[in-house]
Amino acid sequence: MNGTILLLAGLVLLLLLVAYAFWRRGRDLRRTSGLPQGKVVYTDMERARPPEAPLRSERWGLVGKPDYILETADGLIPVEVKSTRLPRSGRPYPGHVLQLAAYCLLMEDIYGQAPPFGYIRYGDGQTVRIPYTEALRNEVVNTLKAMRAGERASDVPRSHASSWRCRRCGLAYVCGSQRLVA
Ligand code: SF4
């Protein structure tokens, strides 16, 4: 009888230790990444975990992997982590906002509920909350349409005047006359 009690006590202790280890791992992950509050239900940022499957939407022809999805009191929230600093203006880069909005669109289609907002976490430790408004949703949908139209077009005009972008561009070798650097 004493042996059974000892065995049960040992099992309970073991379960408590495992639960504590999981809690610590979640806490450490949040501390190092500076994540807002919420339970991490999807991440591609933790090496110890097997890789997450990408989120896919047939409807939008979109595939993507958010850095994190948090389960919060406001629902499932995407988090995009950037190594760059938040611009001095305090406003995130438009491309980062559109990327986050694309994750919101994916999640809306896959989970049947649109995230009310998402976060962009910058390398300098600043986190910006981006409301997923109807205007932002329209912007990302229109951008997708423009990209689809561009894929079908024989020629697509350059959308910027930044030579540094062309210098770092992986498509420069097929770009032709639109390229801003030799
Ligand atoms: S090289 Fe062409 S595709 Fe690349 S950034 Fe410049 S204009 Fe755009």
In words, what does this structure look like?
The protein is α+β, with helices and mostly antiparallel strands and 182 residues long. The chain folds into 2 domains: 1-33; 36-178. The protein has helices at residues 2-33, 94-111, 134-152, 163-167, 172-175; strands at 39-43, 55-57, 62-64, 68-72, 75-81, 117-121, 127-131. The strands form 2 sheets. Strands 1-4-5-6-7 form a 5-stranded mixed beta sheet, covered by helices on one side. It has a two-stranded antiparallel ribbon with strand order 2-3. Strand 6 (117-121) and strand 7 form a beta hairpin. The chain starts with a helix and ends in a 7-residue tail after the last helix. The mean pLDDT is 85. Bound molecules: iron/sulfur cluster. Iron/sulfur cluster (SF4) is lined by residues 158, 165-166, 169, 171-172, 175, 178-180.
Features:
182 residues; alpha+beta; five-stranded mixed β-sheet; two-stranded antiparallel ribbon; 5 helices; elongated; binds iron/sulfur cluster
Short recap of the structure:
The protein is α+β, with helices and mostly antiparallel strands and 182 residues long. 43% of the residues lie in helices and 18% in strands.
